[in-house]
Specification:
By secondary structure, this protein is an alpha/beta fold. It has a single domain, classed as Aldolase class I (TIM Barrel). Helix content is about 40%, strand content about 10%. The protein has 12 helices and 9 strands. α10 links the parallel β8 and β9. α5 packs across α6. The longest helix is centred in the last third of the chain and has 19 residues. It is globular, with a radius of gyration of 17 Å. The termini are far apart.
Length: about 300
């Protein structure tokens, strides 16, 4: 089990897993600085610049119990460009009912951050992995220890949606030091003058939030998703990936007429909560990939 003691002072250095580089065969440059490009960003840029639309599906760490690592491998085989792995937390302020339910089931089965990272470390995939969780987990472990734990598990990036730009510095410096790329969120309510600062501090890509509210499926793509993509593309060359409210291949294709890619979460998890198998979830990711490829073509 990964060590989750709270003292930062015990975590002076970290080590990357040599058998699974953080970005599909590219060994990480472990220190990130303003203006530098880390391996996650390099991987996504290369694919974007080659004309590919980026697909980042979501897995809840610990759900389905005992099968979720197979989802990571299946999603990679189905055409994911990176995979977001949620570390369950009891008070997920950004998550809607679908992700909350999967997290509750995982927590009830005894999953914890150490168990998630232990299982991730054993997964064999050739695409980058990104941890998504809440700042309380990072704070309790300590910034350096949490960053090192991610590195040891072979995770390339981190999303802490409740940690705002003004407070991200201490965590982001610890993450930069070991080569973990901190992905920042940009909300539709952010004023135009704030977006360049978010993009400057973000690593890997910038996560544009498609609508005001919590995660979850929507019958139609919110107009704010396309607007958010355009606002971000106007101020940054980082890959712009839109999440929250992207629910099917048609919506993914629609938003990537402007954005570089999409994060899809609730639509994947719902299929399993409603009785579908992990193969059904993998098939849905393959359908998302096909829809994006048709759009790119």
């Amino acid at each position: 089990m990964a060590d989750i003691t709270t003292s930062d002072e015990m975590a002076e250095t970290g080590r990357a897993r040599p058998d699974r580089p953080a970005t599909g065969g590219v060994a990480p440059d472990r220190t990130q600085t303003v203006g530098s490009v880390g391996p996650l960003e390099s991987w996504l840029r290369e694919r974007r610049d080659g004309g590919r639309k980026l697909l980042v599906p979501y897995v809840t760490g610990g759900y389905p119990v005992d099968q979720w690592p197979q989802l990571i491998e299946g999603f990679a085989a189905a055409g994911a460009d990176a995979i977001e792995i949620g570390i369950p937390f009891s008070d997920p302020v950004m998550d809607g009912p679908t992700i909350q339910e999967s997290s509750t089931l995982a927590l009830a089965a005894g999953i914890d951050p150490a168990a998630v990272l232990d299982r991730v470390a054993a997964v064999e995939v050739d695409v980058p992995l990104i941890a998504m969780t809440y700042y309380n987990i990072c704070f309790r472990m300590g910034h350096r220890r949490f960053a090192n734990a991610l590195t040891e598990a072979g995770i390339a990036g981190a999303i802490l949606p409740d940690l705002p730009l003004e407070e991200v510095g201490p965590w982001a410096r610890a993450a930069d030091h070991v080569g973990v790329e901190t992905v920042l969120l940009a909300a539709p309510t952010a004023p135009d003058e704030r977006l360049p600062r978010i993009c400057e501090r973000s690593r890997g890509f910038v996560y544009g939030v498609g609508l005001v509210g919590i995660t979850g499926e929507r019958a139609a793509l919110a107009s704010s998703a396309i607007e958010m993509a355009g606002r971000l593309k106007a101020v940054t060359d980082l890959p712009v990936v839109i999440g929250v409210g992207v629910s099917n291949p048609e919506q993914a294709a629609q938003v990537t007429e402007v954005a570089d890619g999409v994060v899809v979460a609730s639509a994947i998890i719902r299929r399993m909560l409603e009785g579908g198998s992990i193969d059904d979830a993998i098939d849905f990711v393959a359908a998302l990939r096909a829809g994006l490829d048709r759009n790119a073509g």
